[in-house]
Amino acid sequence: MRSACGAWCATAQLEDGSWIAVPLRCRSWSCPTCAPMLKRRLLRRLRYARPNLFATLTTSRHTAPTPEEAFLVANAAVPALIKRWRRRFPDERVDYFLVWERTQAGWPHVHLLLRAPKVSKHWLSACWRELTGSYVIDLQLVGSTQHAATYLAKYLAKDPAVPEGFRRWRRSAGFFCAADEPIELKLPVLSAWTLQPRPAEAQAWLWLASGLACDFTSDRIVHARDAPLEAREQLFGSLGRTLAIRLRDELPYLSTPPELRGRRGEGTRVA
Asked: Which CATH number do you get for residue 159?
C-alpha cells in the first residue's frame, strides 16, 4: 500500500466521465509520514551517485560576527570553491551534494559528498580560508557510500539547520545522473490533473455533498460517479456522515462547505 500523509490529493476526470482522487505526499522533511520516505529515497539516489570524496567545511567568528551571517557567507562561498576546483581540473567533472549542520553554538558548517578529482587538504583549506576566513576543513576518501549517505541523511530529518527560506540540502546539476538509477513511478497520464490542498477523504466528502456516489480502494484512492437517488441517499447516509464527523475535528471548514458544493476541481491545474 502506498504511504501518503494525506495533506494533498490529485483529482482528474476519467474517460467514462467519473472522477478519481489520488492521495499525495506533502514531501516535507518535517512531516512524520513523509520524512522517512524522503530519507530512504535520498539514500538510494546517493548510492547510485557513487561519490568518492567527503568534505567538511567549517565557519567561525573569523567568518562573520554572527552564525546567521556566517551561513550567508558560506552559502556564497561553496559555489566559488567548486568553480576553483573545476578550473584546477578543466578536463574532469566536479559534482557535489551539500548538507548543512550547525554546532551547539549555532555556527554552520558544510558537509559535501563529491564526485571529483582528489585535491590536497592544504589546497582546500587555503581556498576556504580565502573565501570565508575559516581554515578548519576535513577531506576523506569515501570508503562506504552507504555510511556517508546515512551520515548526511540523518541531519535532514532533524530541525532545520538553515535560515528560513533556504533549502537544507542542494546539489550540482550533474550529481544525480546515473544511467542505472531506477525511474520513479508517477501518476498515470490523463487529460489533466488538479492539485488539491486537502486529503482524499475530504475531497470525497465534497463530492458526496454535491450528490456524487463515492467508493474507496484499499490504498485510499477515491472514485466518484453519478448515482441514482436511492444510492446517493444510502452513501451519503453512511459513508458521507461518517466522513463529516471524522473531518469536523481535523478540518472544521469542511463540515458544512456550501460555497464548495457542486464545484469539481478548484485549485491549481497541473498538466
From this structure: 3.30.70.1910
40: in domain = no
AA identity, residue 6 = G
Three-state secondary-structure class, residue 155: helix
Domain containing 60 equals 51-171
pTM of structure: 0.64
Regarding whether 135 and 109 lie in a shared domain, the answer is yes
HSE-up (13 A, CA, CB side) for residue 103: 15
pLDDT tens-place string over residues 98-148: 988 888 888 998 999 999 999 999 999 999 999 999 999 999 998 877 777
**Do 93 and 177 touch, CB atoms closer than 8 A?**
no
Q: pLDDT tens digits for 29-74?
A: 777 777 777 878 888 888 788 889 999 999 999 999 999 999 999 9
One domain, residues 83 and 158:
yes
Q: What domain count does the chain have?
A: 2
Q: Are residues 73 and 23 in the same domain?
A: no
Residue 46: HSE in the Cβ half-sphere, 13 Å Cα cutoff = 30
Residue 196 in grid coordinates: 488539491
200 CB burial (10 A radius; 0-12, 13-18, 19+): buried
Which residue, 171, 202, 222, sits at the end of a domain?
A: 171
- Among 92, 90, 64, CA closest to 77: 64
DSSP secondary structure code for residue 180 in this structure: T
Amino acid 158 reads K
How far, in Å, CA of 178 to CA of 190, rounded? 29
Domain endpoint, select from 140, 171, 202: 171
Q: Are 201 and 243 in contact (CB under 8 A)?
A: yes
